Amino acid sequence: YPTWKRTLARRARECQMKRFCRAQAIQRRLEEIEVTFRELEQQGIKLEKLLREENESPADQQTQWTNQLLYLVQKKNNLMSEESDLMIAVQELKLEEQQCQLDEKLRSYMNKEDTLKTPEDEKAEQEILKQLVEVVNKRNVLIQLQEEKRLSEL
């Protein structure tokens, strides 16, 4: 087993572990966001009830409740934006994993001697190459989507 093959295999495992760790971190953050959504919703319900039921409250108090409600809405919007970014990151991780698997398959076909390749091998190699191009294009679309989102937020 040549050294370069061991190096490639080790690097592939390292990249896979990094993707796994990133996926776990994203999943944890999505769960945290979900909990925060519920908390914000409960706070918002309380504030809405106060605003509707306490008509004879001082104007200062109602203004304060309204400001708190607007703050909760802003916080929720920020969390929704973060959640959409994380969902894009999840899609990107899936495509990255798919790309690595396709790279590995393609490498196995390309390492084969041309004289030993069957027509089926050549057809499979072309199909993998086609799939790889599709995955790269999908990743490119996600990156463009993120860039457009970032520019629109500015």
From TrEMBL:
Pfam families: bMERB_dom. Its main location: membrane. Keywords: Coiled coil, Membrane, Monooxygenase, Oxidoreductase. Residues 13-154 form the BMERB domain. Residues 23-57 form a coiled coil. This is MICA1 monooxygenase. The keyword Oxidoreductase applies. It is found in: Membrane. The lineage of its organism: Eukaryota, Metazoa, Chordata, Craniata, Vertebrata. GO terms for molecular function: monooxygenase activity. The keyword Methyltransferase does not apply.
